[in-house]
């Protein structure tokens, strides 16, 4: 079973799930949760073990590959997983198709926009050189 | 075409006696929503202030250090641990394990106890060091 082909064996035989789609979404939510388990614990531990949380110390940490790369992965994965989760909530409670589409589209734009701003800021710090 | 008869519905929220499993379920949703909306906003704000320079970062730190800021950060820490432990419990049940009543109930209670203990331990440590 790979990420792109996530139907169960029975689902494949019948050619559908209850929603006829969505296996990838379900698997993706769980795979990203495992990634965030690692990255989230890494982030908290890293902040805890930094000697200080002032501008110079944090910037210096995020200029190292072992600071910047996991942070970029955390930003991407947390926005992805957060959007996935909110989509499930919206699909559960907002049944009118137009409202559902509007809300899911707004959340998609917010998540992609937020992630882009966070990644730009991180890149500026990581690649900016010593201030 | 035959007229659509009202189909029998499964019993919904009001009919069940409230239990740890249901509480863990709704708290998983609430903590996930809080982490996505408030957590990602704080994360993005933090990175942007870091990229903006030490003045902007100082503003962020000052706000984070107020009572309101600390309540938000401690709340997000608690939501993180609650969602993390509850998420692990979900991954286990997704794999078809721990579905017996006794173990399932015990694990639901364990997510609340564990999240509170981890949050308390982390913040006692942080506030102790900061003194």
Describe this structure in words.
- The complex is a heterodimer of chains A (131) and B (131).
- Chain A is mainly α and 131 residues long.
- Chain A has a single domain, classed as 3 helical TM bundles of succinate and fumarate reductases, CATH 1.20.1300.
- Helices cover 78% and strands 0% of the residues of chain A.
- Chain A is built from 5 helices and no strands.
- Chain A has helices spanning 9-14, 23-49, 55-63, 65-93, 97-127.
- In chain A, α3 packs across α5 (97-127).
- The longest helix of chain A is centred in the C-terminal third of the chain and has 31 residues, at 97-127.
- Chain A is elongated and about 55 Å long.
- The model of chain A has no long low-confidence stretch (mean pLDDT 88).
- Chain B has 131 residues and is mainly alpha-helical.
- Chain B has one domain (22-130): 3 helical TM bundles of succinate and fumarate reductases.
- Chain B contains 4 helices and no strands.
- Chain B is elongated, with a radius of gyration of 21 Å.
- The A-B interface holds A 30, 33-34, 37, 40-41, 44, 48, 53-56, 58-59, 62, 75, 78-79, 82-83, 85-86, 89, 114, 117-118, 120-122, 124-125, 128, 131 and B 29, 32-33, 35-36, 39-41, 43-44, 47-48, 50-54, 57-58, 61, 77, 80, 84, 87-88, 91, 94, 122, 125-126.
Number of strands of chain B: 0
- Cα gyration radius of chain A (Å): 19 Å
Shape of chain A: elongated
Q: What structural category characterises the helix and strand content of chain B?
A: mainly alpha
Pick out the low-confidence regions of chain B.
Answer: none
Helix content of chain B: over 70%
Hey, which two chains have the biggest interface? A-B, 33 and 30 residues
CATH topology of chain A: 3 helical TM bundles of succinate and fumarate reductases
Note the run of SSEs of chain A as H and E. Answer: HHHHH
Q: Low-confidence stretches of chain A at least 5 residues in length (pLDDT < 50)? A: none
Based on Cα principal axes, name the global outline of chain B. Answer: elongated
Strand proportion of chain A: under 5%
Strand content of chain B: under 5%
CATH architecture of chain A: Up-down Bundle
Q: Oligomeric status of the shown chains?
A: heterodimer
- The CATH class assignment of chain B is Mainly Alpha
Mean pLDDT of chain A: 88
């Amino acid at each position: 079973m790979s990420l792109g082909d996530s139907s169960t064996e029975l689902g494949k035989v019948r050619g559908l799930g209850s929603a006829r789609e969505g296996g990838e979404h379900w698997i993706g939510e769980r795979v990203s949760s495992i990634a965030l388990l690692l990255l989230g614990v890494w982030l908290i531990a890293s902040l805890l073990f930094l000697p200080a949380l002032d501008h110079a110390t944090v910037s210096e940490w995020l200029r190292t590959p072992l600071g910047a790369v996991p942070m970029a992965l955390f930003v991407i994965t947390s926005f992805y997983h957060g959007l996935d989760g909110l989509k499930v909530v919206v699909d559960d409670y907002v049944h009118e198709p137009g409202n559902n589409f509007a809300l899911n589209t707004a959340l998609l734009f917010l998540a992609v926009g937020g992630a882009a701003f966070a990644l730009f800021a991180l890149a500026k710090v990581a690649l900016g050189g010593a201030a | 075409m035959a007229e659509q008869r009202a189909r029998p519905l499964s019993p919904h929220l009001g009919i069940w006696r409230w239990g740890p499993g249901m509480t863990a379920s709704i708290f998983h949703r609430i903590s996930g929503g809080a982490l996505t909306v408030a957590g990602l906003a704080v994360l993005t704000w933090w990175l942007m202030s870091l990229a903006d320079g030490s003045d902007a970062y100082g503003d962020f730190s000052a706000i984070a250090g107020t009572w309101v800021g600390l309540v938000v950060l401690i709340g997000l820490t608690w939501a993180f641990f609650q969602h993390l432990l509850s998420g692990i419990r979900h991954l286990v049940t997704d794999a078809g394990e721990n579905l017996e009543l006794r173990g399932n109930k015990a694990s639901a209670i364990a997510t609340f106890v564990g999240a509170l203990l981890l949050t308390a331990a982390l913040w006692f440590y942080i506030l102790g060091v900061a003194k």
